[in-house]
Amino acid sequence: xxxxxxxxxxxxxxxxxxxxxxxxxxxxxxxxxxxxxxxxxxxxxxxxxxxxxxxxxxxxxxxxxxxxxxxxxxxxxxxxxxxxxxxxxxxxxxxxxxxxxxxxxxxxxxxxxxxxxxxxxxxxxxxxxxxxxxxxxxxxxxxxxxxxxxxxxxxxxxxxxxxxxxxxxxxxxxxxxxxxxxxxxxxxxxxxxxxxxxxxxxxxxxxxxxxxxxxxxxxxxxxxxxxxxxxxxxxxxxxxxxxxxxxxxxxxxxxxxxxxxxxxxxxxxxxxxxxxxxxxxxxxxxxxxxxxxxxxxxxxxxxxxxxxxxxxxxxxxxxxxxxxxxxxxxxxxxxxxxxxxxxxxxxxxxxxxxxxxxxxxxxxxxxxxxxxxxx
Length: 375
Ligand SMILES: Cc1ncc(COP(=O)(O)O)c(C=O)c1O
Hints:
The protein is of the alpha/beta class. The chain is 36% helix and 14% strand. It is built from 12 helices and 14 strands. The chain has helices at residues 17-27, 35-47, 59-69, 86-94, 139-148, 200-210, 235-246, 248-266, 294-297, 301-310, 340-348, 360-374, and strands at residues 52-56, 77-81, 98-102, 124-127, 152-156, 164-165, 168-169, 176-180, 193-197, 272-274, 281-282, 288-292, 316-317, 349-352. It has a 7-stranded mixed beta sheet, with helices on both faces. The longest helix has 19 residues, at 248-266. Bound molecules: pyridoxal-5'-phosphate. Residues 58-60, 84-85, 87-88, 130, 156, 158-159, 180, 182, 193 line the site of pyridoxal-5'-phosphate.
């Protein structure tokens, strides 16, 4: 169709975002000192069934201060899936610790819980499960392993706002959990992040590290006992975030609904593979990723992506495995070895358009193209 363009993912700001943002501008409260930061934190903590939340500048910063707060440092090892966004490994590297990879499950694409124990050494201090594309990990099995080896869990919930496992919200299973509010996320502040925890001591430390290690409950002397970070969020971002949280269940339902439509319209097209939802979990479908079984489909992934792009449908490649990232070598990472499922995802997978406000007619159009191209 001429002039048609369906982006891979747009932000959807459908509630009080503009009203709260204008309030910041009209009152002049635009830095991190405004009231929306606290309100955003409190409403988000509640949404995650967690006691405390600390808003930060992005999801990578959230992961980093979570690790620092838990005392992860040089000489330590942190276990994480090989199939995830690079920020997970970077945050570990910032602390001087070494990321150690575990392949993902072939169906759910989340960390393969049966392969975690073989990677644990005397240096292992934490596990960082990632609820990839909104699909929750098998959190009780991860908790069992963490308890056995006395490890922390840092949940990466960047892609999974509102997802549940056995009716419990993600983010409430771990010592500290990290979220991202980047523009393509299910909830967004443009750029932004959050850490949530049920532990008061961690909560205080997270606030301390976020803001340059200024003493929290003492007058400011401008003397600092630790190295801190400027990971503050602005009142303007928090204003948008508060409005997003007010409609969090609505935004969540749109992503789930869109994913269900894709599955329905493509169910009779041979060679199209979807992520399998975690048993007893609620997948919030951050992105609609598919794999192409090229033999069954009769065309390659590359051919299909080109065909879709030619017809106004934007697509994106999936992540490259962490074990293939040469930049991690200097942290002593094993960037060799076989991570079969991760490699399969990278090789045969890509994202279809996934905005919350995607129209049913657009999904139908995309799926018809996919079906037609096979013939
Ligand atoms: C799984 C995962 N972790 C961490 C991040 C980092 O978040 P941010 O881009 O807000 O720094 C992302 C961002 O896309 C992500 O997908």
